[in-house]
Amino acid sequence: xxxxxxxxxxxxAHHIFGRVRKPTRWLLTNGITLCEGAxxxxxxxxxxxxxxxxxxGAEIIDALSQLNxxxxxxxxxxxxxxxxxxxxxxxxxxxFGKIYR
Length: 101
Fold this sequence. Notes:
Layout: E1 11-15, E2 31-35, H1 36-42, H2 50-56, H3 58-67, H4 75-96
Antiparallel strand pairs: 1-2
């Protein structure tokens, strides 16, 4: 149920990740019921709305994202990757000599 309106009438099934994403197409965790108005509204958005993330849970959204091969890195993920790349560059500079940029 969409928390903004609280409407239980004429509920429709909504895929959190669209039906074209085959890995999660038939998973019940990839679905939520919305009233017709909320369902139409959600389809105008480019991202998953906060309300759906709150209802379903961020952990479920993350798991569905990974199943679909869709991954939006967090700031910490990016910082970890940056640190890893710095370490790799340092390793190669020791092994092959200074790399000039």
